[in-house]
Amino acid sequence: MCSCMNYKISAFTVLLIGIVLAAVLFWYNFSNAPANLPTQLTYDPPQILNPHPDLEGVQVNVNTADAQELQLLPGIGPVTAERIISYREKNGNFTASGDLLNVEGIGEKTLEAIEIYIVFG
Fold this sequence. Notes:
There is one protein chain. The chain has 121 residues and is mainly alpha-helical. The longest helix has 21 residues. The radius of gyration is 34 Å and the shape is elongated. The mean pLDDT is 84. This is Helix-hairpin-helix domain-containing protein.
């Protein structure tokens, strides 16, 4: 065996080589970066489209509406409209949208769909 292969590399030498290599790669990476990077990132939230454009501007007062008016609301058919009226007659006026969750047939998804169209005046 050749005597030139009989040397040891210390842990310090390996560490030093690693640091130098990392510094060179770091410098190379950032020396090629564009100079005009934005200083602040901006976020434009997506525009939420009205899923029922035919109801644009419609406001239904759930405390005074009859069954026909209530059926203008998305997801409210004749049966649920009658249930809203019956609940209102038995328990009094609704004071908040969450009160409608007490009506059989109205769940979270239906409430979410009608919430922008209902008023309690």
